[in-house]
Amino acid sequence: MPRPTAPLRISASTSTRAIHPALTAGQPLRPRVTTSNVPGPRSQSILQDLNRSGDFRTSLVAVDYAKSKGNYLTDADGNQHLDCFGQIASISVGYRNEQLEALAGSERFRIAAMNRPAIGVFPPHDWREILEAGLMKDSVRPRGLTQIFTANCGSTAIESAYKAAFMAYQHKQRGHSDFTAAENDSSLFNSSPGSPSLSILSFKTGFHGRLFGSLSTTRSKALHKVDIPAFDWPAVDWPQLRYPLEENEADNRKEEERCIALVEETIERWQAKSPVAAVVVEPIQSEGGDNHASPFFFQRLREVTRQRGVYLIVDEVQTGVAATGTFWAHEKWNLPHPPDAVTFSKKMQAAGYYHTEELRPSAGYRNFNTWMGDPARAMQASEIVKIIEENGLVEHTAQVGAQLYEALRGLSARHPGLIQNLRGKGQGTFLAFDCETPAQRDELVGRMRNKGVLVGGSGARAVRLRPLLIFSEKELEVFVETLQAVATEIVA
After folding, report:
1. Do 443 and 427 meet the contact criterion of CB atoms below 8 Å apart?
2. Which of 94, 100, 161, 197 is nearest to 352 (CA)?
């Protein structure tokens, strides 16, 4: 029998500020799982029934959202789970948040939800007011980006940003003049000059969505891409950093310089074939394994793109809205010049991209769809921003993330074969580590779920944490206790 492992104590020196009790009022004190496995029998029955009329093979549990609260998700079997995955990083201020539900009950919200407009043609009379209360608020809008395009999801935000980059690139190429007759006519037959050969450069193991343009820049999992026609666009290596970062600075700097050199070389080489109009990059590669890079890397990337006349699109669909301890992850880069576009979705509960004046289309209807977002979701985003600011959740996430990182570092020292390459120091609760093998990672995630704690996998063997912004010391202690118990079971 293995010797019992002493509990890992949470350091009091990194104690976090208390959040307002109303944010977690009524949530369970800790997980409770009464079924022998998760999903339990009722969830399994519901999912099997759903699968008869649609593909629900990826579903983990059937959720009872009416009974979920705060940091805890309740499934159809009554199991209560501490949610450290946050609906794939898309829940921000908790389940059944009272302020959000009060908004949903208001007449203004009901009118917006039940009379969804085609914003580009029939915007609501208070659309500017809605935007300035949240998405376009000075404390929210990324520095240097004065324009916004609202969209329906993260993938459509990326697709629309790509279109804007192509339009702006070609507008510069033709000297800011109007389209020629040849361009107009040939575009309808998908041929040059109206349909030019241009490309978006992305990074290997990156993820930007599952539609055609976004999928062409997604490089993280073959299952998403196989059988789907794709644009012939370039991809370069993402820096393969060594951890801990502070002990490998020299080697990591060389690796990042190597990858920046590849970016420059690729832009140059593709100029004759299919000029690179934009580079798209995640601050932290999420689906591809939670892969990091330093501010130096992103500063050099911004420098190279500006020198080459290439637009820089920062994909903050997953990293945005306080998850990394700043409102936007790219704030930490201290760029001398802002990105040309920053996409958002998930925790904002609305989607779109911010951009410079230069990416504003030269004519109406060029970047357009029926809805172009949703006023009800924009109202929800405004209320989420209000909750975040009133409760100091950006600072709170930075503090609790530092405490969580230290706890994980202690567990990594105890179980170095199971918890490897811990990363995310200084990145709020946007933390991850690797297991030794993919099978071991899947076992860890499954055992955590059976004990009532939800975490996610990414890449080949990474475990990623995406707790809610209201995740605090109580939840941290439950998470660490559960992970320690699971680690002991696996290595026994």
Report:
1. no
2. 161
Condensed to tens digits (0 to 9), the pLDDT of residues 5-16 reads 566 666 544 556
Catalytic residue status for 370 = yes
Task: Assess whether pLDDT exceeds 50 at residue 41.
Answer: yes
Domain range for 24: 12-98+392-491
Active-site residue 150, yes or no? no
> What does the pLDDT read at residue 13?
46
Is the Cα dihedral 296, 273, 309, 206 positive or negative?
negative
What pLDDT shows up at residue 3? 44
Whether 251 is a known active-site residue: answer no
Residue 194 domain-assigned (yes or no): yes
Q: Is the pLDDT of residue 438 over 60?
A: yes
Q: Based on the domain organization, do 207 and 154 belong to the same domain?
A: yes
Distances (CA, A) of 293 to 255, 298, 299, 325, 365: 10, 8, 11, 16, 37
476 found inside a domain: yes
Active site residue 56: no
Active-site choice (34, 146, 180, 370): 370
How far apart CA 304 and CA 104 sit, in angstroms, is 46
Mean pLDDT over all residues of the chain?
95
Same domain, 164 and 153: yes
Catalytic residue among 83, 315, 340, 434: 315
Residue 6, in any domain of the structure: no
Q: What's the structural domain count of the chain?
A: 2
